[in-house]
Amino acid sequence: MENTYRNFFLLLILFVWSMAEASLAQEVSPKTEAHENGIDQDPDEAAVKNLVERFLAAMGNGDLEAIEPMFLPKATIGGARFREGKWNTFTTTIEDYLASKNENHSPYTEPVSNYTIHISEGQLAFVKADAILYREGKAQSQNMDYFTLLKDGDSWKFLSAAYTAKPILVK
């Protein structure tokens, strides 16, 4: 008799758990699908994504004057590039990064294929952007960009920007 009660109790727990999972899936799925289709996108999420895309376009075009106002003072930028069999990293402030850039910029594009955006309290955003960097129409590197943004008044600004870049090997 004790085993019967225990088995019944275990089945009841499994049933309640499965119902909770099904309920959660129903609540999340429509939002996720609408989100992926751009329907009912959160205004903060849209603004953050727009800023990231403007930043990547400005970087690709070498438009340094457009970049600086996108960042908070003393924000950081850094990256890790895989070259000649090893990872090379750098970190600096955005001011020093922009001051180090020269006029011999080679234009590129970096279209993002997938975004993951987390926003906390409408004030802090964390963005992961998966992209391929192209120069002269040729894929150069697989880039994973990570951005941390803070709301500054009514607008979003970068607190940090970092990436990894791994060359795409052409056979």
Tell me briefly what this model is.
The protein is an alpha+beta fold and 171 residues long. The chain contains four helices and six strands.
Q: Based on the structure given, which CATH architecture of the largest domain is correct?
A: Roll
Distance between the terminal alpha carbons, to the nearest Å?
A: 69 Å
Q: Biggest β-sheet, characterized?
A: 6 strands, mixed
Label the overall shape.
Answer: globular
Content of β-strand: 35-45%
The total of helices stands at: 4
Query: What is the typical, i.e. mean, pLDDT?
Result: 83
Quickly give the structural class: alpha+beta
Q: Specify Rg, calculated over alpha carbons.
A: 22 Å
As a percent range, the share of helical residues equals 25-40%
Write the H/E string, N to C: HHHEEHEEEE
- Briefly note the CATH topology name of the largest domain: Nuclear Transport Factor 2, Chain: A
Protein name: Nuclear transport factor 2 family protein
Keywords: Signal
Pfam families: Lumazine_bd_2
Organism: Algoriphagus lacus
Any overview of this molecule?
The protein has 171 residues and is an alpha+beta fold. It folds into 2 domains: 1-40; 43-167, Nuclear Transport Factor 2, Chain: A (Roll), CATH 3.10.450.50. Helices cover 38% and strands 41% of the residues. The chain is built from 4 helices and 6 strands. The chain has helices at 2-36, 43-61, 64-67, 94-100; strands at residues 71-83, 86-93, 112-120, 124-135, 138-152, 155-167. The chain has a 6-stranded mixed beta sheet. Strand 4 and strand 5 (138-152) form a beta hairpin. The radius of gyration is 22 Å and the shape is globular. The protein starts with a helix and ends with a strand.
